[in-house]
Structures are given as C-alpha cells and as structure tokens.
Amino acid sequence: MRKSTTLNLGTGTFVLLGFAALFFLTTQTTSRGISLGSTPHYNLTAKFDNIGDLKVGAPVSMSGVEMGRVTKITFDSKEYKAVVTMRMDARYTQIPTDSDAAIYTQGLLGGKFIGITAGGADTYLKDGSQVDFTQSAFVLENLIGQVLANFTKSSAAPDSGNAKAGASAAPETKTTEKAK
Amino acid sequence: MNLIKELWTSLFESLVGLGSVVRFLLRLIAVSPRALLRIDLIGQQVFNSGALSLVIIMLSGLFVGMVLGLQGFQLLQRFGSEEALGTAATIGLVKELGPVVTALLFAGRAGTALASELGLMRATDQLSAMEMMAVDPIQRVVLPRFLGGVIAMPLLAAIFSVIGIYGAQLIGVQIMGVNSGSFWSQMRSAVSLSDINEGIVKSCIFGVACSLIAVYEGYYATPTAEGVGRATTRTVVTSAVVILFFDYLITAAFL
Question: Which residues of A touch B54 (CB under 8 A)?
C-alpha cells in the first residue's frame, strides 16, 4: 500500500509537470498566449502612417523603460492609417497629452517597439485617449529606394557634373535623417 | 570478392534486423488495445522511465539552457541584437535541443534499464515461464514498458525545454543584463505554434523509436550475461543513430 502511494505520487507529479511544461510552451512562449493574471492597466491608441513590422506584444517604452505592450493593431480605412492600441501599466499614468510616439528598432536585427517622448503639457493621457503626434517606422527599403532614385538621377545626366548631383542628394539625406 | 560478400551479408543482416523491428512494432500495436485493460502496469512504467528520469532531465535542461544563454548572448552581442536571445534560445530548445538531448538521455537512462531488465528476464527464463503459464509476455511485460516510454518521452522533452528557457533567462537577463521585457516579448512574437508542434512531434517519434529499440533489444537478447550486456550497448548506439537520423528527416519535413 505504502509503495503504491509513492508510486502514484511520483507518476502524478511527473505527468502534472509534463503537462504544465507543455501548457507553458504553447501559451507563454508563443503569440497566442493567454496572459495569466492581469495587472492594473489603461489603454492608449495612436495612429501611424506606417508601422513597418511592428507586432502585437511589442514593448512600449519611455526613456528606455518598458511601460506597456502593444495589444491590438487595426486599420483605419477612412484615414488609411494603422491604429495601434497600447496597454500601459497603471503605475505610469503621468504621460503628458502632447507626448509623441515613434516606432524604433531594437538593435540592428531586433523587432520594432514604440518609444514615447514626453511633451510639456500639464494634463496627462487617460484611459482610451489618443497620442496625436506620431512618427512612422523607419523602413529601410524606402531609404534604399530614395538613394537608388538619386543615383539614377545623377547618372542619367553625367554632363551636369558631380557638384549638382551632390547638391541634389544632400537635401534628400537631410529629410531621411529627420524621418529617422 | 570476399569483401563484397561480407558487405552483402552485413547488408542482408541489417535488412533482416529492420524487418524484424518493424514486425515487432506491428505486433505491439496489435496487442495494445488489450493492454489498456491493465492500465496500472502502464502507470508503473511511466513512473519507471519518466518520473525516475526527471532529475537528470531537469539538471541537463538547466545547464543546456545556461550554455545557450551564454553562447547566444556572446554571438548576438556582435550584431547588437542581444534582445533576440529569448527567441534564439527558445527556438533552439523547443525545436532541436529539447527533443534530441532528452531522447539521448532517455536512451541512456530509461532505454538501457528496459533492455537489461528484459534481457535478464530472457536469460533467467522468466519470459518462457510466462509463456508456459499461458501469459503472453509481450502483452504483460513488453507492451507496458513500451507504452510507458512513449508517454513519458514528450513530457520529459517539454520539461527539458521549459527548464532550459529559464536557464537561458537566468544567464541572459539576470547576469548579462538583457532587458527582461524584450526577452519575453520578442520570444512571443517570433515563436509560432508550429515551432512548438515540431518539437512535440519530434519528441513523440523519438519516444516511440527509443522505447521500441530498447524493448526489442532486450526481448531478443542472447540469453547470456554477455548477450544482455551487448543488448544494452546496442540499445544506446542504435537509439542515438536513429534519433539523429529521424531528427534530420522531421526537420526537413517541417521546413
């Protein structure tokens, strides 16, 4: 009797652990996750012209500190913009209403995340309010396209000299730097 | 001429061996519905090959995860993308290292135990005694051990992967200072359910292969002390080769 109890206990523990591990793998490491226990939070939205490859679950940070996650990405068919819903931790409620949200890349190969830069207003964003000032994702292809366009322009008119080509390229790089 | 003849014989023998393993598997499948009546026997074998392997699996998982954390961090840092460590470690563990290392350890820990146990039963005529009493040894002894291993293996692989992920997290986040939020969120956005499925399919197939090889080698062991020893050795060697071969096949199939 005693022996069979230990046997059952051992088998039970093992099977339970095994299925708990399978459950963890399927729900906690993939995007189809079920969030266990919800911490107090509030939602913000922001409209972007282009979100690049921003994904649901991407961090939202301010000064490098993570303050929330992207929970939903939808499309506004009237304005042709992406609407990003962010779930912010309730600890960080003092985000000025004129703050701006920009999409950055983590490292060189990393995923996209949203960085919020504080504005100067005295009123703070509340649950459901929208961040009005946004900057789109920096899309590498667009930049390459612009550079290539410049190259073809300058090589199409070789007689006009390098100085002119350089001059036409200069404002272009300035604007892309601003976009960054 | 002699060489060709020898080569031919060994090829012939391995074909015969393969055929008899497959026939053994079919025989096991044929009697498996009747074995479900004695579910307690299967439970006992799940304990023997699963629960008793838990400690070695968890320890190995932790160290494999920690090594992945260190190596992955070192490599990813060169490209300035240490945040991808969670993704790299999880995909590496769930798809490859989890099932393969678990299966190799399983063959060493549980497979050898099965093979030597059955081999010794054969050597001491216990299996023949059962047959004399009209008890089918395949149904009573071999099948519960086989099914126990088949059930235990995927669970062990899942435990290995989870412990490994925490090992990588321990090194990456706590020691190397990767941001904990990006570690988990990048993992969640990059790991898809099909990656997990691949790992589960692999560990199930490895479970069948390892258990089958172990019980086959044990059941057909030469009934001598030397024969039992050889059966145990062959279990480990064959299992390792078969696991790595199937690993390649399944990976190619999933791509």
Answer: 14, 17
